[in-house]
Amino acid sequence: MKNYTHKKKNAKQSNKLELDSFFSKGVEKMRASDIRDALKLVEGKRIISFAGGLPDPETFPREEIRDIINMLEYSDFSSSFQYGATLGMIGLRKELANFVSKRGIINVDEDNILVSAGSQEAIYILCFLLLNPGDDIIVEAPTYVAALNAMRLKNPVLHGIPLKNNGMDIEELERELKEIEAKGRKIKFIYTIPSSQNPSGITMSMENRKKLLKIAEEHNILIIEDDAYGFLGFDGDTPDAIKSLDTNGRVIYTSTFSKILAPGFRLGWVVANPEIILKMELLKQSIDLHSSTFTQRIALETLRRGVIERNIPKVRKLYKEKRDVMVKSIRRWFPKDVKYRVPNGGMFIFVWLDSRIDTRELLPEAVKRGVAFVPGAGFYHDDSGKNTMRLNFSQPSIREIEEGIKVLGTLIKDKAV
């Protein structure tokens, strides 16, 4: 009987399912997001969070959205609850073709536009369509962590270009391109967030936008322009999108309703050459068939009725006030040798600490003291920047910003001793 039991245990052990052999090769490239990990740490706790890129709920035009829903006719509900076109509702795409003129993009129509599930889906689709394993691509250093993760699924070679006060370091970009091409290789695309960049908050000057496009034309490179924060400039007008300068369809422009309406709608859009839009449509059919028809219907009405256009100045005013409070608090409580740039838009301040401090190790200690942030290493293509952190000012209240920065500054000073 004992032998039988022993054999039974061995049989169970031998039948244990080893899942690693079933996963595709791309899965091993996936990384946990420092942003999501930071949010997990604060879940269910009373804590001041500078971690997520969350809009302030006060910026959501709730009453206008409620009125739109209340005024929808029965026929509107019937179509809004039904399957829809993969490209997106034609009425919404027409409105978006007009709306992007506010970013200087003209002479486009609904055939140039695809509605996506936030701009994140658009970035994922573009990476799937454009990249082969081993392809070379240019990114900013630092850059949006979720875009990096989407790229890594296709196993490209990532080349990071540092940022200056006026955006991507153009001279360094040219040096990098010469070095790459000298090896007989070619860049597939440049991914850039030129306006109120995430995480740095830097806005690329119009001069650099023109230079970047010229370089892309000379070297026959595509540009993916992520304009998630293009409508959220605080100090003067944000320069027109790079796409506004594009005359031959080289620039693929993405943006989102998440920052100017509400992220729960899960709606973004792409403006691109119709041939690229067609390929994106075919892939999106295999992913989710189409974006939510119901939220598209509401977004359409917010554009028609000018809700978003009226809401954007309110968002800018509130976020500028919060930015100013965070900058003032950093100047008061952080060590004098920390480095940061005052962002001229967006939602974030990016901070460089003493090189001896690893912010991933600092985070759990900060959470114990009641404050959360996002470690900066994940925003770098090569996981450098271990002494950096991203601080969000859009979601916490002014009181929380003042209190949280004081706590965080005290902790950083304790670590620097």
Which descriptors would you attach to this protein?
globular, Aspartate Aminotransferase, domain 2, 4-stranded antiparallel beta sheet, 8-stranded mixed beta sheet, alpha/beta, 2 domains, 417 residues, Aspartate Aminotransferase, domain 1
Strand-helix topology:
Blueprint: H1 2-14, H2 34-42, E1 48-49, H3 62-71, H4 74-80, H5 90-99, E2 113-116, H6 118-130, E3 136-141, H7 145-152, E4 157-164, E5 167-168, H8 170-182, E6 187-192, H9 206-218, E7 222-226, E8 251-256, E9 268-271, H10 274-287, H11 293-304, H12 307-333, E10 339-340, E11 348-352, H13 359-368, E12 371-372, E13 374-375, E14 388-392, H14 398-416
Helix pairs in contact: 4-11, 5-11, 6-7, 6-10, 12-14
Would you mind describing this structure in some detail?
With 417 residues, the protein is α/β, with parallel strands linked by helices. The chain is built from 14 helices and 14 strands. The chain has helices spanning 2-14, 34-42, 62-71, 74-80, 90-99, 118-130, 145-152, 170-182, 206-218, 274-287, 293-304, 307-333, 359-368, 398-416; strands at residues 48-49, 113-116, 136-141, 157-164, 167-168, 187-192, 222-226, 251-256, 268-271, 339-340, 348-352, 371-372, 374-375, 388-392. Strand 3 (136-141), helix 7 (145-152) and strand 4 (157-164) form a beta-alpha-beta unit. Helix 12 runs parallel beside helix 14. The longest helix has 27 residues, at 307-333.
